[in-house]
Design a protein that fits this description.
Blueprint lengths: L1 E5 L2 E6 L5 H16 L8 E5 L6 E3 L11 H19 L9 H7 L3 E4 L6 E5 L27 E5 L3 E2 L7 H16 L2 E2 L8 E6 L9 E9 L6 E2 L6 H22 L9
Antiparallel strand pairs: 1-2, 2-7, 3-4, 3-5, 6-7, 8-10, 9-12, 10-11
Protein name: Protein kinase domain-containing protein
């Protein structure tokens, strides 16, 4: 892996190790990066969900999931609004001004969660991606296959748990929660998967400071998500248990107390 500069900053070029499993993981990582919704790699305006007080992404139309998750919530909300409008009296007085203020959704600005993605490239002479289907993503067979290249934004260095205050470790755990809101799981969380750089990212690089660090999630070779999964069991288990297990692992690796059980 190496970095180089381009017009908008530093870019990381990631290559797999010469093992069959490493190639399989980087193939998966390229697919996951390509499927990430736009708001995960940019500053996003999020609506605070009144049900649990947590931010919920305002997903751009081009990145809306094909089924399930937030889309179902939106459809249910539209249905309720239509029903309320159909059954309400046209003679009712307008709500008081303070009630109108309470009806406005609360919005927060959330920084990027994952690096910007600049492409996944394989040699043009390779007819198909090589793999050992029976080895899996942790296969250790030495291979000499042509190397693909994954290009993404340089987001700093892995965090040092011993030097990272608890409030910043909690911020890292929140990234995992927001990743789940984007309908993806990480599934391979370790301290090295959390990167830190000087921030905030809204100011030019020469004005950034370690007093306002910025954190990002990386390493998606074992990830999965609703937009790319064809497994019906995954769809059913995503919100029921998989997100909870992923977040619990994030708390463990970050040295945080386990989340309360629901």
């Amino acid at each position: 892996m190496f970095t180089f500069r381009q017009e908008h900053g530093r870019v990381v070029a990631k290559f797999p190790h010469p093992t069959c499993g490493a190639h399989q993981r980087i193939h998966k990582e390229g697919m996951v990066y390509g499927a990430f919704p736009f708001h995960l790699s940019e500053y996003a305006r999020l609506k605070v969900d009144d049900d649990d007080g947590q931010p919920a992404p305002v997903i751009p139309e081009r990145s809306a999931p094909k089924k399930g998750g937030k889309l179902k919530q939106v459809c249910r909300a539209i249905g309720r609004a239509i029903k309320d409008a159909a059954t309400s009296s046209t003679l009712e007085a307008p709500p008081p001004r303070d009630a109108c203020d309470r009806m406005r959704p609360r919005m927060v600005t959330v920084p990027p969660i994952v690096p910007k993605f600049f492409g996944y490239y394989i040699p043009v002479e390779v007819p198909s991606l090589s793999c050992h289907p029976t080895c899996g993503p942790w296969g250790t067979c030495p291979i000499r296959w042509p190397q693909p290249i994954l290009l993404m934004e340089d987001c700093g260095s892995p965090i040092d748990l011993g030097e990272t205050p608890e409030r910043y470790r909690r911020e890292c755990a929140t990234l995992v929660d927001w990743l789940h809101d984007g309908e993806f799981l990480h599934s391979d969380l370790r301290p090295s998967k959390f990167l830190v750089q000087a921030g905030p990212l809204t100011v030019p690089p020469h004005r950034r400071s370690w007093q306002s660090p910025s954190f990002r999630l990386v390493g998606f070779g074992m990830s999965n998500g609703l937009p790319i999964s064809q497994d019906d069991d995954f769809w059913f288990e995503f919100e029921d248990s998989l997100c909870e297990e992923d977040y619990e692992r994030a708390c463990r690796v970050l040295g945080l107390p386990p989340p309360p059980q629901h």
